[in-house]
Amino acid sequence: MSRRIEQQSGLDCIKPYVPGKPIEDVKREYGLDDVIKLASNENPLGVSPKALAAMTAALPRLSQYPDAASYEFRSALAQHYDVDMAQVAVGNGADDLILELSMAYLEDGDEVVVSKSSFPMYDVHAMAMRATLVKTPLTSALCIDLNAMADAITERTKLVYVCNPNNPTGTIVEAEAVDAFIARVPEHVLIVLDEAYVEMVDSDAFPDSLDYVRQGRENIFVMRTFSKVYGLAGIRVGYGFAHERIVSTLMKIKPPFNVNVLAQAAGIAALTDSEFVAQSVTANKIGRNYLCREFDRLGLCYAPSHTNFVLVHIGPPASGIQQQLVEKGVIVRPCGGYDLPEYLRVSIGTAAQNERFIQTLSEIL
Ligand SMILES: Cc1ncc(COP(=O)(O)O)c(C=O)c1O
Predict the structure, then answer these.
(1) What residue's CA is closest to ligand 1, atom 16?
(2) What proportion of the chain, given as a percentage, has pLDDT over 90?
(3) Cα 295 to ligand 1 centre (Å)
(4) pLDDT-based confidence at residue 15 (cuts at 50, 70, 90)
(5) Is a pLDDT exceeding 80 seen at residue 93?
(6) With 0-12 CB in 10 A as exposed, 13-18 as middle and 19+ as buried, what is 16?
(7) Which residues, other chains included, contact 151 with Cβ-Cβ below 8 Å and sequence gap of 6+?
(8) Which of 216, 224, 326, 344 has a CA 20 to 30 Å removed from the CA of 37?
(9) For the chain, the helix, strand and coil percentages under 3-state DSSP, each to the nearest 5
(10) Among the atoms of ligand 1, which is closest to the Cα of residue 91?
(11) DSSP state, 339?
């Protein structure tokens, strides 16, 4: 009898990541012409114009492999953020860096501390490496509970992920709390500070986490992405800052050409596009304030957002309301998969999209 090939056992409890429903699928399924998607925290202003021009100019170079070390790109990031180039890692999206960190540091039986209701790819890659996930609850204010995370660390802990601001809640942990947390975490544990939404944070109390890297701390990885404020989600480019020992470890296992020619060109140019960043941040703030005002008017509670999305409390039928929104051409994210079944996560869109979402939601409610 022939034996079937079996996937490795770490994958047995992994459910595939469910992305925001694509616009074309909803058009087809419900026979709609005009569908908007506020489900994947993309930039509603589009792509950074400078990045777009750089990618266009780089097109003729597509016959060549990209620079495996991303030399120019990493030195541009180092200069922009005032760190050493040896402290800069880049990846095919921040997702790729999560995968690389997991592959580089985890083995059977290691523990990874994550918060409940946080970014799911930490869990996926930890499980794939057959590490044990240790989950801590959110605080009653829907913030990551750093005390609970520090309490959960053991001799076997290798990685701890702090998503700040947190996806899907949009909430932050402040500098003082992060400092106290870092002081409690032993040096054998790598602390990943995932700051995918850092540019949208609206608080003076947010940590300047690059300072930990500049100070030469060996167990901090600050992770960021070009997917959000630079509008480059489709080209896949993320980056991180850490001690050079960590960066050189990642270099050993990353696929050699993981950041493609267009992505490297786009990243370098996007860093110079301060005008687009400022426009995006301002538009996001206006949209966020509008949504929060409208939620107040509708009597709906929401978490204080420091991101380009808002988590709003709808009540027990949240997925039913989400389905009705889809049927009316408005795609938002249900949060059952994040352990928050009474909530919807709504990405901030253009003014017209935000108004359409509020009008449609008001009709349904
Ligand atoms: C908190 C967080 N981290 C990481 C990522 C992944 O970013 P990227 O598009 O660079 O892979 C996302 C994407 O939504 C995110 O929300």
Answers:
(1) 167
(2) 95
(3) 26
(4) confident
(5) yes
(6) exposed
(7) 136
(8) 224
(9) 45, 15, 40
(10) 10
(11) T
Instruction: Tell the residue nearest (CA) to atom 3 of ligand 1.
Output: 196
Class of domain 49-270: alpha beta
Q: Would you kindly state where each structural domain of the chain is located, as residue ranges?
A: 9-38+274-364, 49-270
Q: Are 74 and 84 in contact (CB under 8 A)?
A: no
Candidate of 225, 335, 347 to mutate for ligand 1, largest count of ligand atoms within 8 Å of Cβ: 225
Look at the pTM and tell me if it is higher than 0.85.
yes
Nearest to 288 by CA among 275, 303, 298: 303
Of all atoms in ligand 1, which is nearest to the CA of residue 119?
1
d(CA 270, CA 225): 11
Asked if residues 221 and 246 have their Cβ atoms less than 8 Å apart, the reply is yes
User: The domain 9-38+274-364: what is its CATH number?
Assistant: 3.90.1150.10
Tokens coding 110: 């290691």
Q: Report which of 199, 150, 146 is spatially closest to residue 174, judged by C-alpha positions.
A: 146
Q: Do 291 and 348 meet the contact criterion of CB atoms below 8 Å apart?
A: yes
Q: CA–CA separation, 121 vs 97, rounded Å? A: 10
The separation between CA 23 and the C-alpha centre of its own chain, rounded to angstroms, equals 21
Of ligand 1's listed atoms, the one at least distance from the Cα of 41 is: 14
What distance lies between CA 140 and its chain's CA centroid?
A: 22
How far lies 42's CA from each of 53, 99, 341, in Å?
Answer: 20, 21, 23
Helix 261-270 × helix 71-81 angle, to 10°: 20
Pocket of ligand 1 from Cβ distances under 6 Å: 41, 93-95, 119, 163, 167, 194, 196, 225, 227, 233, 238
pLDDT tens track for 109-159: 999 999 999 999 999 999 999 999 999 999 999 999 999 999 999 999 999
Cα–Cα distance measured from residue 212 to residue 138, given in angstroms and rounded to the nearest whole number? 25
Q: How far is the CA of 225 from the centre of ligand 1 (A)?
A: 7
- How far, CA to CA in Å, does 295 sit from each of 69, 121, 314? 47, 29, 10
